[in-house]
Amino acid sequence: MNASMNAGQLAKAIASGSVSATEAVIACISHIQSSDKSVNAFTTYTFDRALEEARSVDALRIRGAQLPALAGVPFAVKNLFDVRGHVTLAGSKVNRTNAPATDDAVLVTQMRRAGAILVGMLNMDEYAYGFTTENTHYGPTRNPHKLSCTAGGSSGGSGAAVAAAQVPIALASDTNGSIRVPASFCGVWGLKPTFGRLSRRGSYPFVHSIDHLGPLANSVESLALAYDALQTPDPLDPVCHALRVQPVGVEHGKGTKGLRVARLTGYFEEFATPSAIQAATTAAAALNTTATAIWPDAALARSAAFITTASEGGRLHLADLRTKVQDFEPLSVDRFIAGALQPAAWYLRAQQFRRIYCERVQALFQDWDVLIAPATPLSAPALGAQWLDINGKQYPCRPSIGLLSQPISYSGCPVITAPLWPGGTGAMPIGVQLITAPWREDLAFRAAQVLQESGVAHLQPATL
Amino acid sequence: VAQTSLNDTDVLNYVKAASALLDLPLDAARIESVAMQLGRTLEMARQLETVDIAPDVEASEIFCPAPFPAHDDERGTA
Q1: Beta strand extents in A347-449 (DSSP E only)
Q2: A34/A164 Cα distance (integer angstroms)
Q3: Inter-chain contact B37–A335, Cβ cutoff 8 Å?
Q4: CB-CB contact of A335 with A127 (8 Å)
Q5: Cα–Cα distance between A421 and A447 in angstroms, integer?
Q6: How would you class A389 by CB atoms within 10 Å of its CB: exposed for 0-12, middle for 13-18, buried for 19 or more?
Q7: Is the Cβ–Cβ distance between A166 and A28 less than 8 Å?
Q8: Any catalytic annotation for residue A154?
Q9: Are the beta carbons of A355 and B58 separated by less than 8 Å?
Q10: Annotation says A78 is catalytic
């Protein structure tokens, strides 16, 4: 089994019998065991369960049964997803004493129904409050393309596991950029769907009013297969607004005809290094456009997202902050406390602003189908970096990595992050956001497919 | 929007008072580091105060007691 095969290719090989699911899972386990010593993407392995499920897939095939779309394909999940029999850590020490989950999260169940095989849980910033996966309790996740650099966060384990070819698909969450930042820094594909598209039931929350779940993957095909498998209406999740499945499938050769595409300038250039701007302009050229557009109120939206995040996140953990503050991640505990102390007026102002902001964003999509912007201001910084240099100005590293992702998620719009490899980064990737109107993930997939087919967006093997 | 002349001491005092109100014990070092974080957020809150938002603009999160009925015949008779 070649771990860099896309999920569809691997599923086809398993369905044809040219490789068994058990062989695929054993190869996957072996690669994880050899590579994770340097990457530290995983916090928990579920190898026994994986082998048992692989044997079930093989038994189905031998009986001549029709195999589901992802039968035998290994995947892993950020450790804020419930996995039956395991404690949902959410990157924390505090949660270790919680009872194990009695069932899988809805999205884990959906992947299992599609035949995918869970091989483990992945590292993250504590309670998802961070962009670097520098986790004091479980160690930092290292970027597979340069081990001294961050893999991004908060879903750093998910980005690194795909980049290191440990799994073709990983599930993660994104509140302010936690799928898009690791996708950008690790050079993999990522999808933050429309807010309310996928069920969040059985995942550990961070910010109820902004949390999204979604996949990262090694190709557009893998991303589409995962996304289609994850979709299901969920009347038990009050935030799952999608009432039916809208599969995107894998469409080749549709090109950009009829697609109105523009690159975002203004704020999205002001807070982007030349390499990040180059990544976005390269993507724009491949999508056949020189048009530009201005995203409304980006700086204000980032401030509102920051305030909303701090307030909801801080309040969520207030009880533990009172009694177990010493067990929290030192890198984020002060932000949690400050958030808990924020005046209610700040929070309500932000939520009121969010309504008029979303109306302005949706108006922009009357003129455009796909908008392009860098996912991060720059390529992956070194682990431990305190400051970022963006166009000659210094910014505090950990909160500023999300400058270009936060305004977008606050609008709830879907985004695919495409992996590009611009110059001036020391051969490190920078992701490009393909942003569409709410519920139009299909258009983002169409643009992503063009970028992949043109060769400008792709994975590169990590030399571990 | 007129800015108050809030200084570092004012933010420190706010952190002390608000944390006491929430029964959240903080030592002196923690009060300082939390005040630094809150000071950063204060600047963002001030940006939002400059936005002209009409009083009737609803917050984006609205409580919904139950899903709206799909059909009028589910309403029953008053």
Answers
A1: 370-374, 387-390, 393-396, 415-420, 430-435
A2: 11
A3: yes
A4: no
A5: 17
A6: middle
A7: yes
A8: yes
A9: yes
A10: yes
- Encoded tokens for B61: 């999160």
- A interface toward B at CB cutoff 8 Å? 209, 238, 299-300, 302-304, 306-307, 310, 318, 321-322, 325, 334-335, 337-343, 346, 348-356, 358, 399
- Output the 3-class SS for A242-301: CCCCCCCCCCCCCCCCCCCEEEECCHHHHCCCHHHHHHHHHHHHHCCCCCEECCCCHHHH
Strands A117-122 and A142-143: unpaired
- List Cβ neighbours of A207 (8 Å cut-off, separation of 6 or more): A175, A308, A309, A312, A313
Judged by CB atoms closer than 8 Å, whether chains meet at B44 and A306 is answered as yes
**pLDDT digits 0-9 by tens, A313-351:** 999 999 999 999 999 999 999 999 999 999 999 999 999
Place of tokens 């600047």: B43
Asked if the model's pLDDT at residue A4 lies above 80, the reply is no
For A462, the token pair is 């990590």
CA distance linking residue A41 with residue A27, whole number of Å: 17
- pLDDT confidence of residue B77: 41
Interface test with A, best of B11, B12, B51 (most A CBs within 10 A): B51
The answer to whether ipTM exceeds 0.90 is no
A303 belongs to the catalytic site = no
pLDDT tens, residue by residue, A345-391: 999 999 999 999 999 999 999 999 999 999 999 999 999 999 999 99
B4/chain A closest Cα distance in angstroms: 15
Q: How far is CA A339 from CA A207, A347, B37, in A?
A: 12, 10, 9
What are A343-348's contacts with CB under 8 Å, separation 24+?
A343/B45, A346/A307, A346/A311, A346/B41, A346/B45, A346/B48, A347/A307, A347/A308, A347/A311, A347/A312, A348/B59
Establish, for the pair of chains A and B, how many residue pairs have beta carbons separated by less than 8 Å: 92
